[in-house]
Design a protein that fits this description.
By secondary structure, the chain is mainly α. The protein has one domain. Helices cover 90% and strands 0% of the residues. It contains three helices and no strands. The model has no long low-confidence stretch (mean pLDDT 88). Keywords: Membrane, Transmembrane, Transmembrane helix. It comes from Ramlibacter tataouinensis (strain ATCC BAA-407 / DSM 14655 / LMG 21543 / TTB310). This is Candidate membrane protein.
């Protein structure tokens, strides 16, 4: 069962990263990065990848619950 959640997390993560790759491909990222100061780029990336952090946090809790139930 744990492998299923790992696969779900990986699939959602790759889809999410693919979405951002599509949105920011090529010239868009170059023009965006050249007009923003470094701290704003960091804030943007932190906001963009925040949902992935919460996804893996929830999946970690689900895995822990499954392991505790099997004991």
């Amino acid at each position: 069962m744990e492998k299923v959640w790992l696969g779900v997390g990986a699939l959602i993560s790759f889809a999410y990263l693919g979405f951002w790759a599509f949105v920011l491909h090529g010239a868009r990222w170059t023009s965006l990065a050249s007009t923003m100061p470094g701290n704003e780029i960091g804030d943007f990336l932190g906001g963009a990848f925040g949902p992935l952090i919460f996804l893996w946090l929830v999946l970690g809790f689900i895995q822990q619950r499954i392991e505790d139930r099997n004991r």
